[in-house]
Amino acid sequence: MRNRLAILLLALVLAGPAAAQAPPPGSVPITPARPDPRDPDAVIVEELVVTARDRGPAWWTVSNGTSTVWVLGVPTLAPKHMQWDRTAFERRLSGASAVILPYQDVRVRFATSLGAAWNYLRLRSASPFEDSLDPASRARFAAARARLGQPARRYATKNPLAAGLLLLTDYRDRNGLTNTDPIKLIKILTRQAKVPIRQKSYDIAPQLGAIIRTPAADGRACLNEVVGQVEAGPAVTLQAARAWADGDVRGALANERTYERCIALVPGAAAFDERTKADEAAEIEAALKTPGHAIAVVRLRPLLSQGGVLDRLRTAGFTVKTPGED
Fold first, then answer.
1. Burial level of 98, CB count in 10 A (0-12/13-18/19+)?
2. Helices 160-174 & 216-232, crossing angle to 10 degrees?
3. What is the pLDDT of residues 186-214, one digit of tens each?
4. What is the pTM of this model?
């Protein structure tokens, strides 16, 4: 039960599926013609989206005139152990006062663990989820989970959003995709260099209850998105990851939907998103109080969106430069 609970919690807060059958990176606008008002990262600040001048992934800078924070935007989803040019990172790591990482280590506090377990049990079902579907939907779901090598009993839940999140996790595991790289490698290199790490963790047990409160129609919409992604395969994600490694920000954003339709519909998701962005901006602002330089690692779309981390820092009066500027 603990393993299933962890999967649901991590899937809920760390990932949202990309649109099914998405066109290749660069062929679609990074901001939709009609942005979903419920999606906090729908609108991208276009002037922040440029191709890096140096080799490797793109970097932005935030400064107050005396101190600088180098900001590395990273993909939300990437192949496990993907290769990328670390030259710029290792150069900036030398002498850095700190490395700020996105939240990665989510946890369940003891005080809320019983409630989390109870919510998990409320999501459980004695029969497979697909048994509750109409014939056409059942056949499509069964084909998707069979493609991932999973039995029907794997998805013994009453909740369509929970089924979708489990299917999403299985899809990523099957295709060697992860939301922990390249952050995991960056953390290892930072520890080896003995540079202080700043990384917040959050108690996300209440979010499990939010799955239960999500309207069934919204849960089904999310499930359909995930099934569509399983059917489409990982090509778009792999192409976007290559674009990121080459410093092509627009190409990398083609697969960046951290809190898109599905996750944005979960009760409490907008407040959690607001909290994490505010915390990341505050960490960068605090690092600027120390002379010299620091590094911050932020997921791409929350970094570049309207109301995102860089937008907040610009509004606060800090100087933000793009990867295309000297």
1. buried
2. 20
3. 999 999 999 999 998 877 666 666 677 77
4. 0.85
